Amino acid sequence: MGHRIVVPDDFPKVLTGTEAEHKLKTLGEVRIYLDKAQSPEELIQRIREAEVVLNIRAYSVFNRSVLEACPKLRLISIWGTGVDNVDLQACKEMGLSVTNTPGANALSVAEHTLAILLSLARQIPTLDREVRAGKWPRVEMVQLSGKVLGLLGLGAIGKHMARMARGLGMEVIAWTRSPSPERARESAVRFVSKEELLEKSDVVSLHLLLTDETRGFFRKEDFERMKPTALFVNTARAALIEPGALLEALRSKRIAGAALDVYDQEPLPPGDPLTTLPNVVLTPHNAGMTPEAMLTGLMMAAENIENFLSGKGVNPKYRVVEGKR
Fold it and tell me: Active site includes 183?
């Protein structure tokens, strides 16, 4: 019997039937689940005999108890950049390897970030709804050209966003933990402190990885530093924001509006307070869901598995944890 590879969470379906699935089947025995595990126990049942897991969705949580129940597991290959659903410390202690696919969907996510920002600035969802209802509204909208975009994080997505925003005529400033003159020149941005960014930006866009250090990174007092006319965009992770802080800022009109693709609870429950606010544009965590981005990332995840199993070694750019199991 060859290597046992399990995909516990291809739901909604993105891997099944693709070139990436065919590649996986050349590497070993593959089992793909097309629904969501309803409990940690069910996730364990799915992956208990696996040597390799290809993780599609962040709702599959690989905590210490799940990992301890799967002694045959050697590699978790994640489709995407975020690894906040994996206990990385436990993986290090147990000798498990973890890989991801940074940058695979960066252009797609940046395009989506710009799209929902424009939708918010131009009130497109509201105007579309009213025109369909036979109305002919006249409202003031926001022109982005000449405005300041503040990027919190300047990874692959942030760099694409900076380039596209400059094309609209925006000035781009950024905050990052590792600023340098070279990075500033490469992306044509000016690095500033978090406080200066919040005070000067007309648009604040969040582009950080969620880690223990960045959880709750954006707090109530950060919204209070922003201009009351400013717009806020988040296509990264909801947990980067202090719980309740964004909703309070929107309800109190401390900021003018928000465009969101990520939420504390997903799917967003019917009747969630965010759905009742007129100054919000909402999309269902689908910023990276273009055929090009999906296939690129899935093929990278499969190649990480191939390189791991062959002993060739995973590209250092895609290694999150290097285990010895």
Answer: no
